[in-house]
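ESCALATION

Customer reports they have been waiting on this structure for their group meeting. Please prioritize. Original submission:
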Amino acid sequence: EGQIHQDEEEEEEEEEKEEEGEEEKLKEKKEEKVEEEKDEEEEEKKDEEEELEEEEEEKEEEGEEEKLKEKKEEKLEEEKDKEEEEKKDEEEEELEEEEEEKVEKEEEEDTRGDL
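Update from on-call: job pushed to the front of the queue and completed.
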């Protein structure tokens, strides 16, 4: 009878150990799954950050190209303004010269008329 009791206790202990072992395995599986999900999330986050960096770099490059384009346009506009200013100055000089010649002619005619 003592032997039977001892065998039953050993059997119960064995069953408990098995249950604990299964629980431990389930716990480990759960932890592994959580760790995998965490790794996946980190990988996704890393990928998103890289993508954002690339987009940022592209925007910077586009921005620099836009700045260069604007500078070029500004320079062309300045040259155009400069040419127009020079043309205007030349026209004014011509008008002044014509005016001076006209005045000189009138003075000459007046001088002749006085003689």
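Sent to customer with the following note: The radius of gyration is 49 Å.
Escalation resolved.
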